[in-house]
Fold this sequence. Notes:
Strand 5 (134-138), helix 5 (146-159) and strand 6 form a beta-alpha-beta unit. By secondary structure, this protein is α/β, with parallel strands linked by helices. It folds into two domains: 9-267, Aldolase class I (TIM Barrel, Alpha-Beta Barrel), CATH 3.20.20.70; 283-314, no CATH class. Helix content is 37%, strand content 14%. The chain has an eight-stranded parallel barrel, surrounded by six helices. A two-stranded parallel ribbon has the order 9-10. The chain has helices at 28-40, 54-65, 84-92, 113-130, 146-159, 175-187, 204-214, 235-244, 256-267, 288-291; strands at 9-12, 45-49, 72-78, 97-101, 134-138, 164-168, 193-197, 218-221, 284-285, 310-311.
Amino acid sequence: MSNPRKKIIVRDSTLREGLDTPSVNFSLEQKLMIARLLDKAGIPEIEIAAPGNFLDDLEFAQALAKERLNVKPSGLIYAYNPSCREEIRMASGLLRRFDILMPLSPRRKPYDYGTKTKLLLETLEYALSRNTHIGVGFPHATQVESDILLEIGKKAANKGAERITVYDTNGSSDPFYIHDLIRNLIKDLDVPVFFHGHNDLGLAAANSLAAVYAGAEGLDLTVNGLGDRAGNSSLEQVAVALYLKGFETGISLKDLMLLSKTVEIESGITMSKLAPVAGEFVFSHKSPSHIEYPELFEAFDPGLIGNDRSLIKK
């Protein structure tokens, strides 16, 4: 099952979502270092501005602008935040694009859907008056009835949102549900749909791939899956999986190992040696029956990501 003609947009969220990882707090220079490596790897967009830390993140955006990289910086703004219009005005001068967020869970304010929709559309209209590249994101999109997501998504698209991002905020979904949800959503929307996955059940990479098979045009990913709680969809895992399944991302796969190792060192979050794709043991072979034909036991050639095979003989 593949689609060699389809281009998937990767939006890296390491410098936004990754900072929600306990004990991770990148300095400005660390952020710039990681941004340079993401740019070198061919990542087209990086999410750098987060709700709740917006003004500090815009300082990084100013420093990043001086780097003159190809990668486009983006950010997130909550529609219900009292200071959202001020954030929109400031972001419009520093970010190439940003998304207006509206949590769909009735347990998060504003609590009724009528108010959620009204506030979202008003904020979206104001944002579009300041910047033409505006999307809309829906946290908790997989924790409400799909009709709610479709209804509010349609209204946002009709108002002018360039794209819609579906968040599996608590990581509770599975690939079958995500495939059906994205496929049905795309049938009724004329704008690109992105997917943002969390890894609480270990399914973030699989859910991301399912979203793409269903027609999603973009994915939020983080290096080493860095992120809140159990983390997010892993950039290196999903990028390699997309390549092997025939999708195009424009990512230089041979730059992924350096990127992964750098984020591991700078974040202080040690990656499991058993981690898929970039883990230390992925191409290590110990079983005698494997050593004769090790390539038969590998999902892909280690050279694809600039790695080497290791044969461990007793």
